[in-house]
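Title: Request for sanity check on SulP family inorganic anion transporter prediction

Description:
We are preparing a figure and want to confirm that the structure record we downloaded matches what your pipeline produces today. Could someone re-run it with the sequence below and paste the raw structure tokens into this thread? We only need the token string, no images.
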Amino acid sequence: MAGRAAEPGFAELFTPKLVTVLRERYGPSQLRADALAGLTVAIVALPLSMAIAIASGVTPDRGLFTAIVGGFMVSALGGSRFQIGGPAGAFIVLVAATVQRHGIDGLVLATMLSGLILLAAGFLRLGTFIKYIPYPVTVGFTAGIALIILASQLKELLGLSLAGPEPGPFLAKLSALSQALPSASWPAILVAAFTMALILALRHYRPHWPSMLIAVVAASALAWLADLPVETIGSRFGGIPRSLPLPSLPDLSPELVLAVLPDALAFALLGGIESLLSAVVADSMTGRRHRSNCELVAQGAANVASSLFGGICVTGTIARTATNVRSGAHGPVAGMLHALFLLLFMLVAAPLAAYIPLAALAALLAVVAWNMVERHAIATLLRAAPGEALVLATTFLLTVLDDLTTGILAGFGLGTLLFVHRMAQAVEVERGAPVMEPDRADGAVAERQPYDAALASNPELVVVRISGAFFFGAAAGVGGALDRLGEQPRAFVLDFAAVPMLDSTGAATIEGFVRQARRRGATVYVAGARPGIRRALLTHGVRPPGVRFRSSLPAALDAARARLTREEMQTAAEATAS
């Protein structure tokens, strides 16, 4: 039998893909491919980074700092060849709520703490467990985030003037916006509609063109040439700087650390899920395989670095990563060059950003929100089993009406209960089931003689076959089936050959059955148990003298019949002697 493959070592798990690619004779042709892909992604990321930052309640330059610093670190240290890091639309809700509660200082500290949490998760090799988030949960919270993003952009899309601050909760926000509808600005609506129409038209007729950048530039030109009274980045924020700030540590006071820790945990959870989902998408497009724990370490380092420069949360971005792959990227150098191109754009074209209408950026995010909704997946899940639809609906509604963390946790909890229920139903307990293969015409008579005939002639011997994963969800059902076997049999054979897994609850259930059988003077034979299952049973007290282990069911039956025969002979001898 072939031995188990050796576990990968630390170096293999955490070596960045950049090192792997550079070892593969990286040359001028690969650099040209990466440079072109990096430029293409930078053109896409430029307006998107500013739009996400503004929607998150911070200045647009912080979105650029995040894409430049965080994006460079993700590509340089990551476990995926094609991952593009930066600010993501999925974080808008969490970031905006953190800014409202704790201000910019609290946001920067929460970003740093989330980076440290992701670093620890990566080095503890927890990346595999993040992949266990059920599919309906990811579809549900993504759709919920998309709806919240769209609602957050209605004020800019319609040019509304609110009497006070815009509420954070979804229903309160909609109520405040509906009351402000009479203040709608037709110039803002015109700019937003023009931007969305141009993006959609370019995607249809010129899918390889940078539709978002072209649409934002065209909308800015329209607003400037027509002198439209719309709010711009310059009128609200005064423009963006032409260089990166000097790195500095955020406020590390214990009080603020404790206050923002829940937000940091939420950032880390969503960042881990989003980045690994993005890496999986890249793998499916290229046939490559990413290193999940190395990717978490890179995401952690990127968030720490982003916080030092005043940036916001960094994660892997699915749309920009897919653009990177479609643009012909060869490896992580493309992502690093994308960050450098963004820095160059900021140094050269920062003054022009002041003319960008906020309605155009809101329209861009509205298109992003629409693209985030996995409509086909939602339709499929709603047609699937009722449990899947319930997990989807619960995650979606709680994400929208409460918060993202509650939605994910509730969806994961429901999905886990659904899985436990299905696994418990898959466990079967059969009494007196056939214990050999069906008769075969070319077999000898002795080989074709089934054990069932012998069992039928000896009611004091009961065979019980357990099949399926014997875990806590199935323990009650298996225990009830064993209790119904009655008190007459003097020997039980438990066939474990079809049990692939046994947890402590299952082992304790068998121990309780053995204890009752021993009180009645019966002997229990455990047949076909795998080494791991045998160890678990022994650990929980399922051991001699009340239990006998045999390697196969025929061996256990032979031993049980021999023991019963000896007991009968002994009883007969005692009766004769008396």
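Thanks, this matches our download. Confidence is low (pLDDT under 50) at residues 433-457.
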